[in-house]
Amino acid sequence: MTNKQRIENLETYLLSVLDGTEKGKLPSTLRVFMQGLSWIFAVIVQLRLWLYKHRIIRPSTLGCQVISVGNLTVGGTGKTPVVEVFARNLQEQGRKVAILSRGYKSKELPFLEKMIQRITTGKIETPPRVVSDGQRLLLDSWTAGDEPYMLASNLLNVAVVVDKDRVKAGKYAIKELGCDTLILDDGFQYLKLGHRLDIALVDRTNPFGGGHLLPRGLLREPMRNIKRAGFIFITKCGEQGEPELKEQLRRMNPHAEISECRHAAKFLKDVFGDKTYDMDILKGMKIAAVSAIAVPESFEKALRAFGAEIVYTRRFADHHRFTQQEVINTINLSIKRGAEAILTTEKDAVRFPFVDRRDIPVIYMRVEIEMLSGEDEFMDWISRICFKSPSIKPDQAKAKKKAAVEAAAILQREKEKVKPSAYSQV
């Protein structure tokens, strides 16, 4: 077993301890120990916020519009599609947008190169990684990280820049790429860069992170801190919305606009080619569901909702980077279980290495955000950010979205040019 597998197994075990799945003396003891650590963590979190609030620690300012999109829990809120729709709407209203991401689990600078920099300059200083300059896709998913790569692949005329230091990334986006609007991807807790607006996402399936802060629960900070948000998205809603949860959030934050949305499957696409399929083909189909996301249950539930019969399920740790052998093994096991196709998520698809096997289709599901309530308020909010009035109405926004889909074909061609380098990293 490799070190990566040991870490992923430990991560999976700890998550099962947190949600109470694991029973026995050891898990119970671990939960008590983690609760103590949570109390310490809560004090540190609140102290840090107090220091920034009272300007004892001062955030950096870059002289342009900075908006954060994030959440109060770790993983699984469906943030990437929201960032995508938000960036697209800003760009369509005339802003030059850059998304700043830390590039979770992206490829680090090689050790030898780090040492050469330290010897020659006395420090390690690398420029931000430009995943897309808004016109071309410049990096593969291995180097960029799966979420930045996915955003860059789907957004035309929006830059995507990766660096743990997002102040440095923001300066680069402004100076070198001419951007005037910065979106902090997963930026609700990133206080180092001053931002004017906060968008907070709340996952309807687990809105309060189990009620505990890390490491006992999934909360990054107390839920009451959602009062910092100017706009709240309730994600993964049902058809009728979530009126009770909306009312709870309204009591916590009486000033924010609140929108309910859902992640709607739009089409299926071949992972290793350009072929697309309608969602209707899933009805009655025997499939294998393969994923490496924080909440695989929501993906599998969506497949069943379209009438698919899941005959084989394989779940990996969140952000797992697949090897060729794992893909081959999955294909073989899926065929053995009688599956007619392998289904995965778009986020996972960018981490699939190329395999020259066509025994069974390997397909990902394209998901986009659909607003169930608050669409007019959202568009008005976008217009205020862009200093435009009146705002674009929903029917106009849909027309623009259709045009953007057609334009995205240009970026798709660039994506295919970059793809082979991603497959070479196994």
UniProtKB/TrEMBL annotation:
What are the binding positions for ATP in this chain?
Answer: T73, V74, G75, G76, T77, G78, K79, T80
- What processes in GO biological process is this protein linked to? lipid A biosynthetic process; lipopolysaccharide core region biosynthetic process
Keyword terms of this UniProt record:
ATP-binding, Kinase, Lipid A biosynthesis, Lipid biosynthesis, Lipid metabolism, Membrane, Nucleotide-binding, Transferase, Transmembrane, Transmembrane helix
- Would you identify the family this protein belongs to, as annotated? Belongs to the LpxK family.
The record's GO CC annotations read: plasma membrane
- Reaction catalysis annotation: a lipid A disaccharide + ATP = a lipid IVA + ADP + H(+)
Q: Which InterPro entries match?
A: LpxK, P-loop_NTPase
Q: What EC designation does it have?
A: 2.7.1.130
Top EC group: transferase
Is the keyword Amino-acid biosynthesis assigned to this protein? no
Q: What NCBIfam families does this protein's entry cite?
A: lpxK
Recorded GO molecular functions are: ATP binding; lipid-A 4'-kinase activity
For this entry, the protein name equals: Tetraacyldisaccharide 4'-kinase
Q: In which pathway does it act?
A: Glycolipid biosynthesis; lipid IV(A) biosynthesis; lipid IV(A) from (3R)-3-hydroxytetradecanoyl-[acyl-carrier-protein] and UDP-N-acetyl-alpha-D-glucosamine: step 6/6
- Provide the transmembrane region boundaries: 32-51
Q: What does this protein do?
A: Transfers the gamma-phosphate of ATP to the 4'-position of a tetraacyldisaccharide 1-phosphate intermediate (termed DS-1-P) to form tetraacyldisaccharide 1,4'-bis-phosphate (lipid IVA).
